[in-house]
C-alpha cells in the first residue's frame, strides 16, 4: 500500500517568505507527527495530532510555525516569515495511534532551504 | 522530561567487525523503539521492545532491553556496508504519547 507522502520534496525560499509543507499520512492512521532534522542532527519533535484531540504543539520553536490537520488526514505545516535557521528537512510520520508505542512510518521529507 | 542518552555518537568499523549502540535513561521506560536512517533517507522502524530483559533478533541484529527497563542496546554482528546509516532509539515521553528520539549513532563501515 501507499506510504506517507510529503510535498514538495524540495523547497527553496527567500528569507521572509511563508511556506507550506504538506503531509499525506497512511490511510487509517490516526496519529500524525511533524519533526525537523537539521543536517547531520537528530529528530526534533514539532507537533503531534491524534484523532480529534487537540494537537500537542509543545515542540513548535516559535509562533511563526503552525500546523493543521484537516479531516483527520492531510496535514499542512506552515512557516511564516522564514528565517535561515529554518533550513532543515521536515519529516512527517504517521502511526495507528491510540496506544503509546505504535511504530511510526516516516515520509521522505521536505528539504527546506531559506536563502 | 523523559530523555535518552545515546552513545556513541559516531562509530567507524571495518566490514566484518561488530557494532553496538546504547540508549540510556534515568527513568524507567515503558518501551523503546529502534529506527535506522540510511544516508539521504528517512527513519525506518526496526523494532519495539516492551518487556524487562527482552532480547529480540533480526538476522545479524540483536536488540536488548535492560532488566530495569532503563537501557537498551542494538548489536550488529559482522557488519556489512549495507548497515551504514544512523541508528536512533526512541522512547515514549512521560505523560504523553509522543516519541522522544535519541541523538542517534552514525555508523560507517569501511569495506
Overall description:
The complex is a heterodimer of chains A (115) and B (111). Chain A has 115 residues and is an all-beta fold. Chain A has no helices and ten strands. Chain A has strands at residues 5-7, 10-13, 19-24, 31-37, 44-50, 65-69, 75-79, 88-95, 105-106, 110-114. In chain A, strands 2, 4, 5, 8, 9 and 10 form a six-stranded mixed beta sheet that branches. A four-stranded antiparallel beta sheet of chain A has the order 1-3-7-6, with no helix packed on it. Chain A is globular, with a radius of gyration of 13 Å. With 111 residues, chain B is mainly β. Chain B has no helices and eleven strands. Chain B has strands spanning 5-7, 10-14, 19-24, 32-37, 44-49, 55-58, 61-65, 71-76, 85-92, 99-101, 105-110. In chain B, strands 2, 4, 5, 9, 10 and 11 form a six-stranded mixed beta sheet that branches. In chain B, strands 1-3-8-7-6 form a five-stranded antiparallel beta sheet, with no helix packed on it. Chain B is globular. The N and C termini of chain B lie far apart (41 Å).
TL;DR of this structure?
The complex is a heterodimer of chains A (115) and B (111). Chain A has 115 residues and is mainly beta.
